[in-house]
């Protein structure tokens, strides 16, 4: 007994010494160390079941089909399709100048992202057009832009008379495209523009210096 007690005192710290049988027949297998990982004491059959479950989960994850792709994003509308240009008539007669028609147009965007008006022009010889304020101007949905067109007769020999459907070119840009539209501004614009040409080039045909 003394030798067994001696041996017990020489065990390293943290180890568990020989375990004696309760019937005094000798020792039994030593208990596992106290700091052994739990997997080390699992029976082999249990470890095999755990490994099989892990493998099955991995197979399910790798074999799962990818979800089908969603529909492609809807592109923004064409800028010309959502932008209107409406003629509002000449400014006050007191603000008119000789040989120039000063009139207002309203540019409205009805849907989609903002539209930038990059240019406003006209193709008629003998006349020049400028816009105040000068483009580019960003027009947002629900916030119309009012611009003043200043159309000046520069050459009476070339300036057209009696235009029935005069137009202006408006260049529009949004996140989808750049488009140039020829905007017909209507009968009132045709009348006012022809009157400006008559006042400048044929004053005898115009009974008054006021803008009709």
Features:
about 210 residues, alpha+beta, Immunoglobulin-like, 2 domains, four-stranded antiparallel beta sheet, 10 strands, about 20% helix, about 30% strand, disordered N terminus, disordered C terminus
Explain what the structure shows.
- The chain is of the alpha+beta class and about 210 residues long.
- It has 2 domains: about 15-60, no CATH class; about 80-205, Sandwich (Immunoglobulin-like), CATH 2.60.40.1230.
- Helices cover about 20% and strands about 30% of the residues.
- It has 3 helices and 10 strands.
- It has helices at about 1-10, 45-65, 185-200; strands at about 20, 25-30, 85-90, 100-110, 115-120, 125-130, 135-140, 145-155, 165-175, 180-185.
- The strands form 3 sheets. Strands 3-4-8-6 form a 4-stranded antiparallel β-sheet. The protein has a 4-stranded antiparallel β-sheet with strand order 7-5-9-10, with no helix packed on it.
- A hairpin with a 4-residue loop joins β9 and β10 (about 180-185).
The number of E-state strands comes to 10
CATH architecture title of the largest domain: Sandwich
Strand order of the largest sheet: 3-4-8-6
Distance between the termini: 132 Å
Share of residues in helices: 10-25%
Q: Can you summarize the main beta sheet?
A: 4 strands, antiparallel
The averaged pLDDT comes out at: 78
Q: CATH homologous superfamily of the largest domain?
A: Gamma-adaptin ear (GAE) domain
CATH class of the largest domain: Mainly Beta
| Portion in beta strands | 25-35%
The CATH topology assignment of the largest domain is Immunoglobulin-like
Number of helices: 3
């Amino acid at each position: 007994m003394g030798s067994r007690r001696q041996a017990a005192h020489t065990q390293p710290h943290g180890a568990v010494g020989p375990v004696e049988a309760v019937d005094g027949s000798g020792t039994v297998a030593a208990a596992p160390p106290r700091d052994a990982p739990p997997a080390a004491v699992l029976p082999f059959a249990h470890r095999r079941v755990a490994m099989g479950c892990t493998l099955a989960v991995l197979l399910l994850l790798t074999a799962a089909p990818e979800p089908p792709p969603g529909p492609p994003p809807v592109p923004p509308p064409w800028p010309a399709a959502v932008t209107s240009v409406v003629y509002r008539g000449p400014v006050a007669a007191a603000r008119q100048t000789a040989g120039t028609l000063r009139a207002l147009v309203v540019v409205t965007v009805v849907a989609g992202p903002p539209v930038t008006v990059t240019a406003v022009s006209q193709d008629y010889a003998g006349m020049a057009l400028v816009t105040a304020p000068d483009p580019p101007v960003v027009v947002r949905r629900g916030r119309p832009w009012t611009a003043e067109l200043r159309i000046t007769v520069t050459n009476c020999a070339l300036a057209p008379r009696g235009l029935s459907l005069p137009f202006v070119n408006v260049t529009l840009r949004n996140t989808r495209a750049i488009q140039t539209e020829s905007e017909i501004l209507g009968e009132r614009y045709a009348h006012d523009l022809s009157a400006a040409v008559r006042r400048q080039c044929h004053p005898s045909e115009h009974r008054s210096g006021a803008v009709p």
